[in-house]
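Try it yourself: sequence plus pyridoxal-5'-phosphate, in.
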Amino acid sequence: MKPLEQLVRKNIWSLAPYSSARDEYSGKEAHVFLDANENPYNAPYNRYPDPLQREVKKLLERVKGVPAENIFLGNGSDEAIDLPYRIFCEPGRDNVVSIAPTYGMYQVCADINDIECRQVLLHEGFTLNADKLLAACDAHTKIIWLCSPNNPTGNSLDRDEIMKVVESFDGIVIVDEAYIDFAHQMSLRQELPTHPNLIILQTMSKAWGSAAIRLGMAFASKEIIAIYNKVKYPYNVNQLTQQQAIEMLKDPFEVDKTVKVLLQERSRLMQAFLELPICEKIYPTDANFFLTRVTDATKIYNYLVDRGIIVRNRSRIQLCQNCLRITIGTRTENNELLSALRQF
Ligand SMILES: *Cc1c(COP(=O)(O)O)cnc(C)c1O
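Structure, out:
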């Protein structure tokens, strides 16, 4: 890995961050707060939230086994995806490399930040070839984006190929693990202490059933996390989100239960799809959705919309011709989908 100072943009490296009232004072003993121009009425909404979300991170330390200083919390993964562009990539000069097909936000954030995003097609079965990815990099490549389990394909990328990328690339490698709680594969979190160029993204939006609160996580070296914290908006995670996250994280075993139910439903739904005349192929999945190639994706998509059932039409994505992405719902919802498709 190149020295961090060489990877980070000059203006960010030398940035003196905004120091909020809550940064300057965060002790417990005080009881009169006249430092932040807050309104003393309308408690508890009158106070600014903790800018570093210490309570949430304390619980995450336990649930994820990652020290608080190695955790960044953002307004969804969206923020954790956008920040590395602003931290590492000089607009109009630097580039990033990502797999394809994959999650659309890496490309969108690249476009917003005026960074070239080089897409390297996955191989047969949506598998990763580390050498091909590395060959697309040049001296201006700052970030490689990986997503495992991948969206919209559903499969996990091979762990050894991922680690080959992490170990061979001299810039930053970001692995998006939004669906890791549904996967057989283990998270790469344990690789963090020995791989300072690795950033792992996770989210409360999927297995934790909390997409509404907008809470995404990045795990990385404490040096990288410190830069994330320097660049983010001071109060990027609001108080209501922090409170709800704390409630969820106090009871992590509830999540295991719903994940188990969803995995059972997933295998039942996929089994039933195999019997459908419209279904040509089902791709292996490690997530709470699966990708299926059908006879006519757009026609079937529109047919389902007319019946009030929405799936994701991915047929215009490269390597996904005539493919629909099906999220696993409740048993009732899944049955409604199946009976509609049987009547197509
Ligand atoms: C759903 C999803 C996320 C979650 O994004 P949030 O902003 O945290 O809701 C992140 N990455 C991938 C690949 C996803 O599919």
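One thing you can check immediately is this: The two ends are 54 Å apart (CA to CA).
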